[in-house]
Amino acid sequence: MDTVFEKVVILGYGKVTGEVLQYVCGRQQEYGYRLQFIEHEVHPFGITERICEERGVPFDRITDKKELADVLDNITERTLIISASNNFLFPARLVAKEHITIINFHNALLPGYPGRNAPSWVIYAGERETGITWHYVTAGVDEGSIIIQKRCVIGEDRKAYELTECLMDLAADAFRECFDDVMAQRVEVREQGFDPQRRMYRSWEVPGEGFFAMTEPVDDIYRLLRSVDYGKNDIFPPLRTQVDGREAVVLRYRKIAAEKRKDEEGFVYLPLNENELLKIKYRFTD
After folding, report:
1. Angle of helix 160-184 relative to helix 15-31, nearest 10 degrees?
2. Cα separation, 144 vs 84, whole angstroms
3. I need a surface site. Which of 33, 136, 233, 268 has the fewest CB within 10 A?
């Protein structure tokens, strides 16, 4: 297979990164590139190091941002850097190098929802649809030309961790679909055409500022709860609310049939509709 790239560097963590790594390993003999994997953010359930060991791929764990920037800055070969589930911001000087091409996976349909934790924000905003984007990296965050996008529906009960899983699968499928075009530099890109004043979602931001009042519309409360629900992964701190004038934190929640209501201490029930309730377990903070 023809390509200008002598080397491929994969940077990231998590499920989609493992899928990308295995696929790129499988295509290495066809293209003849050298392959390197770099883990910048350590993932507690990561599989990439094991994949590298099994496939004989050089593995580096570089958690220091300056050290990572220096390593990438010293690349001299014609290189494709694949940023998959990676939160490292590439320095402008690296992006500007002619022998370096960088592509990135974003878990939303750009130009909408740039930045961090996009699955949370689309749920919180009440979007009915979202998706993924692979795009070229420029000096601006999530601003580069679009390579490929795929869409999925957001169900009315879908939680952030469930949506994230779906998006990871879409990202892996899309990567395999566009890989040959990227390697051959024949991608028919699409410019984002975004508003320069568009909102950028930051890692420290929490939907609803992490608080809701029991008097808010129940649909809004349920949407907020689902938007910060990453299961056992502590992406956000527990949501706060007030019960009987006292501050409380939410421990868990679920939608139940109205007839299953049981008046228990530490629980509140909010009516979602005629047949269903939102059951919330809480703990007072004082």
Report:
1. 20
2. 15
3. 233
